[in-house]
Amino acid sequence: MRDSSVRQPTATADRSSLAGRDRLPSLTGLRFWAALIVVLYHLSRQVGEIPGLSEATWYGRSGVTFFFVLSGFVLAWTYDGQRVPAKVFLWRRFARIWPLLVVTSAASVAVWIAIGKEVTTKAVVATLLMVHAWFPDAEIQKGANPAAWSLSDEAWFYLIFPLLMLLPLLRSGRGRFWVAVTMTVALVG
Predict the structure, then answer these.
(1) Distance CA 26, CA 48 (A)
(2) Cα(37)–Cα(20) distance, rounded to whole angstroms?
(3) Under a CB-based contact definition with an 8 Å cutoff, are residues 161 and 74 in contact?
(4) Domain ranges for the chain
């Protein structure tokens, strides 16, 4: 007979406690604003001077940096190497990014060809492998999908992320906090 006075943990209770750690809604909301400022920056650069908007979005490039730092923090906050092996982590990142990269790269190549610009096979392959930003060759970097440079950078960070999380200092919340404080002070300095 089961003692009803002792509450047994349920799968629902376990999921809800994990959801609090896995989701950071206030930080996720900041990602929207960072992405918006980058889009507006590019819009103002393509369209030309837009009174009020161009000045406000001049620092849109900083939105990319902010987005990367914020995403790294969220990944470190939610990552648990014991619960999610590196192989699974890397596969999830790849599966989330690569299909859309293929679609946007195909569209980009179609546009380049339509306007008469030659696109090399090695540029397309480097883009699809997400390594095109790793090479100091303009033909590779800008050949297939120049806007995907950030995905190439992300691929590098994703590859080294599980290794970084093995460092003892980064295994605890307190350790990550002091690394963040130290890096912030170093950047300001």
Answers:
(1) 33
(2) 28
(3) no
(4) 10-78, 81-189
Dump pLDDT digits (tens) for 3-60. 444 444 444 444 444 444 556 777 778 888 888 888 888 777 777 777 777 777 777 7
d(CA 154, CA 169): 23
Question: Amino acid letter at 20?
Answer: G
CA distances from 50 to 34, 36, 37, 39 (A): 19, 16, 14, 14
* pTM for the predicted model, two decimal places: 0.65
**Degrees (nearest 5) of the Cα angle 171, 172, 177?**
115
- Are 124 and 141 within 8 A, CB to CB? no
Q: Is it the case that residue 175 has pLDDT exceeding 60?
A: yes
The distance of Cα 99 from the centroid of its chain, to the nearest Å, equals: 15
Cα separation, 94 vs 165, in Å, equals: 19
